[in-house]
Structure formats: C-alpha cells, structure tokens
C-alpha cells in the first residue's frame, strides 16, 4: 500500500502521496475560507484598502495557515519519494549482486561436479543436468529475496530420507536373497529381483521432481538404478553445509550396492549390470518357469 502511494518508480508529480500532501491542505483551507465567507456574510472588496486587508486577515488567517501546510507536507512527500527511490536502487543493486554471485557459484558447481562425473564415471547424473540441479538445490527462483546462496534444506532432507530407505531396502534384499537356496526357489528370487528394480525406479520419483535429475524409463538398467543412490549420496555430501547433519548422514553403502549387483548378475547369468532390466528379468523368469514345467 505504501509503495503504491509513494510510487517510487514514477515521477514525483505522478505520486499519489505527493499530490495528496500538496492539495489536501489547500483544498481544506479554501473550503474553510468559503464557509467563513458564507456564514459571516462577507463579500469581496477589490479596493485593497488597509481596513479590507485587516478584515481579510482577521477572518482568513486560519484557512491560510491550513493551506500553508501544503509546503512542508509536500516537501516531506518528496523526501519520502527520494528515500523510496534510493531503497529501490539499493535493492536492485543487491539483487544484481546476488544473481552475479549465483551464476559464479553455478559455474564453479558445474566445473567441480563435471570433473567428479568424469573421474567417478557417474551414469545417472549427467553433465547437462548440473545447471538445472544447481538452480533447484540453491533456490534460483527466490535468490532475490533469499539474499544468500545456500542449499534448500527440504531437498537435502528428501535426499537424506531417500538414502536411508535405499540402505534399508538393499540390506533387506540381500538378506532375503541369501535366505533361500538359489537352486530350488527360482520364482522367489525372480520376484525379489523384479520388485527391487521396480522399487529403485519408483523411489526416485520425488527426487526427480525436486532435484531435477532425469527420470528413468520403465526399462532402466540395473546399472543405472544402483548408480543413482550412490551419486545422489555423493551430491548430498558435497552440497550440505550443516556439519551436524553431515555427521549423522548415512551415505549409501557402496559395498552393499556392489554386493547386491554382484549376486543379481551372477544369479541371472548376465555379463554386466547394464544388460539387466525389468524386461530381462521377466524373460528369464518365463524361461525358468517353462523349464521347470518341462515345456522346454
């Protein structure tokens, strides 16, 4: 409301606050003068004699005093207008500074993670994703009002929950898989592998929408599905600035991921994790069933 009255982005003569301050005392003074003239039965004397001037002053000094308030009030309105313009200028400069700082930070982020992607051979997070991931994690849309470059805590909490769930489910999968003999329980193991692949893809859905990583297809490979939690865990560790949360963060256990990948590859008889997907599991499960039933 105040910003609209002051209209700091317009000329002072177009400011409602200035016009109200300037005209209100004048209008009130004129209205009071006319009311006094009417009630006292006064008339205009254009002779400008001493007596007429003294009479005019006796009756009109209060309306004149009220009208004269327009000068200090208008000056005050002009001062407020200039102050608001100065604040706008400072805010615009600060917003520009924050955007420049954001883009500089983004460039550093892309270079750093671009190197990590190549060094560690990441397959889920790609170099082309880094710009959008940075914008999401560091709240580009509200950087002008946030006034600092820091990771979004809600996104970090989401990744933290995701990593904890992955750790629990992979450990549970490994225990269940090893709990039964692989020679006599084909259907059990195929279902276990199938459900794991479905779970690893579905649990990524909130991450994709919040972190802006790429969505995986329904036939995503086991290699991609197992790489995603390791890479997101690495992202968290390099982005989070909260020492307490870092100390308590359970990063995805690479040994468990490798163990799960190894037993699935060995059980399915496939050369590598990149050749395993839901279609592969369904096909091998069907063949196993047909063999067990003596069809082939």
What does this structure look like?
The chain is mainly alpha-helical. It folds into 2 domains: 2-94; 151-292, no CATH class. It contains 13 helices and no strands. The protein has helices at residues 2-6, 16-40, 50-68, 70-119, 130-137, 143-146, 153-179, 186-202, 205-211, 222-239, 243-248, 254-268, 278-292. The N and C termini lie far apart (81 Å). The model has no long low-confidence stretch (mean pLDDT 86).
Offer a concise description of the structure:
By secondary structure, the protein is mainly α.
Number of domains: 2
Indicate the mean pLDDT.
86
The count of DSSP E runs of length 2 or more, i.e. the number of strands, is: 0
Instruction: Estimate the helix proportion, in percent.
Output: over 70%
Task: Give the DSSP E fraction (strand runs of 2 or more residues).
Answer: under 5%
The total of helices stands at 13
The helix-and-strand class reads mainly alpha
What's the order of the H and E elements? HHHHHHHHHHHHH
Overall outline: rod-shaped
Low-confidence segments, given as residue ranges, are none
Main sheet characteristics? none
The end-to-end distance, rounded to whole angstroms, is 81 Å
Radius of gyration: 38 Å
Give the arrangement of secondary structure elements.
Elements: H1 2-6, H2 16-40, H3 50-68, H4 70-119, H5 130-137, H6 143-146, H7 153-179, H8 186-202, H9 205-211, H10 222-239, H11 243-248, H12 254-268, H13 278-292
């Amino acid at each position: 409301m105040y910003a609209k009255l002051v209209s700091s982005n317009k000329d002072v003569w177009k400011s409602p606050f200035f016009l109200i301050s300037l005209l209100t005392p004048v209008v009130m003074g004129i209205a009071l003068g006319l009311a006094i003239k009417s009630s006292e039965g006064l008339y205009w004397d254009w002779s400008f004699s001493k007596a007429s001037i003294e009479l005019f002053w006796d009756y009109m000094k209060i309306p004149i005093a009220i009208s004269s308030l327009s000068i200090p009030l208008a000056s005050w309105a002009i001062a407020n207008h200039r102050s608001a313009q100065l604040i706008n200028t400072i805010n615009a400069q600060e917003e520009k500074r924050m955007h420049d700082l954001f883009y500089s930070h983004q460039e550093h982020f892309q270079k750093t993670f671009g190197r990590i992607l190549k060094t560690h051979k990441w397959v889920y997070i790609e170099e082309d994703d880094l710009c959008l991931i940075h914008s999401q994690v560091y709240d580009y849309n509200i950087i002008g009002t946030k006034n600092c470059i820091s990771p979004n805590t809600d996104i970090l909490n989401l990744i933290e929950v995701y990593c904890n769930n992955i750790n629990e489910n992979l450990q549970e999968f490994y225990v269940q898989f090893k709990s039964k003999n692989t020679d006599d329980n084909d259907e059990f193991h195929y279902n276990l592998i199938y459900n794991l692949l479905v779970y690893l893809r579905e649990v990524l859905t909130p991450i994709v929408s919040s972190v802006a990583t790429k969505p995986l297809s329904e036939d995503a490979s086991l290699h991609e599905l197992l790489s995603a939690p390791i890479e997101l865990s690495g992202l968290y560790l390099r982005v989070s600035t909260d020492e307490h949360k870092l100390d308590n963060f359970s990063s995805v256990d690479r040994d468990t991921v490798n163990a799960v990948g190894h037993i699935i590859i060995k059980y399915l008889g496939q050369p590598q994790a990149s050749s395993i997907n839901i279609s592969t599991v369904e096909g091998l499960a069907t063949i196993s069933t047909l063999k067990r039933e003596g069809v082939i």
